[in-house]
Amino acid sequence: MTGSRLLGSGSALPSRVVTNAELAAQIDTSDEWIVERTGIRQRYIAGDGETTASLAIAAARAALDDAGLAASDIDLIVLATATPDNTFPATATKVQHALGCNGCIAFDVAAVCSGFLYALTTADSLLKTGMGTRALVIGAETFSRILDWEDRTTCVLFGDGAGAVILEAPSQDGAAGADLPGVLASRLHADGANHDLLYVDGGPSTTQTVGHLRMKGREVFRHAVVNLANVLNEVIEDAGISADDIDWIVPHQANARILDATAKKLGIAPEKVVVTVDQHANTSAASVPLAYDVARRDGRIKAGDLVMFEAMGGGFTWGASLVRI
Ligand code: ACO
Fold first, then answer.
1. Where are the alpha helices (DSSP H) in 151-216?
2. Among 258, 42, 13, 255, CA closest to 140
3. DSSP state string for 20-47
4. Among 153, 212, 231, 290, residue to substitute to test ligand 1 (most atoms within 8 Å of Cβ)
5. Measured between alpha carbons, how far is 184 from 177 in angstroms, rounded to an integer?
6. Residues 6+ apart with CB under 8 A from 172
7. pLDDT tens per residue across span 95-133
8. pLDDT band at 226 (very low <50, low <70, confident <90, very high)
9. From residue 226, how far is each of 107, 186, 249, 279, 294 by CA, in Å?
10. Cβ(33) – ligand 1 distance below 6 Å
11. C-alpha 133 to ligand 1 mean position (Å)
């Protein structure tokens, strides 16, 4: 059975852009260092009144418009975030209420930067088992609120934003095949052994504070390239395609060098990789749907294209999904 189909997408960014030069005026860094090591040139930072929920709501509305659907058409909201508005309730319930589809299933998933892959796969699985017809899958973050702005090794790397897609349950006629639109294959992984390489040093049950992001960047980089290449190969094999068949890779936007190294390992041309890290920096769970929405709206990704989504994040968690648009 082919998986759920992607019907539309939307995204939202805070109004304030912060350039590398602006950061260099506040901490000991430079535009040259940031661009050379990461490819990042600017990021969007949430201001007063902008939260993970407000960005998610704007992205969800844009996705509904894009698909020509009303909020009442949604049966399920899965929102990936590591920076919820509150410890509870789930930010997804705030989004649901703002959209006006009260009563449908709504919950958050926490898988940090691979959160969107976890959310997409969860929603696809629930739709396939008949829990609803259409799902809103959202990645939304305000990482600026958990950064230590005095730690130059992390604060230059992240930004805020949200992206959303709408998934529709596969038709029940049993039709299947790599040429039909829908999720063709997905794989998810986690390995808690590497907690200390990328984590937040606070939380309700440990410090009763929100805490700050801590990362051993060089070691994360090494794990990312290996884990991503492995999971991409698994999905390629599951779907019975070859790497050459992929039209676009829409990766988690952490670092331009990770994107290059992963594409090279798979023998995929760099022109097939959607890159937005220069504009958005690392927006964690938001980065994949944000990049997808940018590439759809600028005409690169079209109906019929074979698109690979992939991400790796804190936990570690990582995953990939292959989708025929
Ligand atoms: N400006 C200037 N110098 C800096 C900065 C900065 N912002 N940050 C670190 N440096 C210095 C360091 O202090 C160090 O100086 P030293 O040699 O005098 O000690 C030097 O630059 C090199 O530091 P490294 O950490 O070794 O630099 P590296 O080449 O590894 O680049 C980076 C660091 C960009 C973080 C890289 O390791 C990376 O991208 N790692 C992957 C991180 C990542 O992708 N995380 C996200 C994945 S999961 C998720 O998205 C949550």
1. 152-155
2. 13
3. HHHHHTTSS--HHHHHHHH---EEEE--
4. 153
5. 8
6. none
7. 999 999 999 999 999 999 999 999 999 999 999 999 999
8. very high
9. 31, 18, 17, 26, 27
10. yes
11. 44
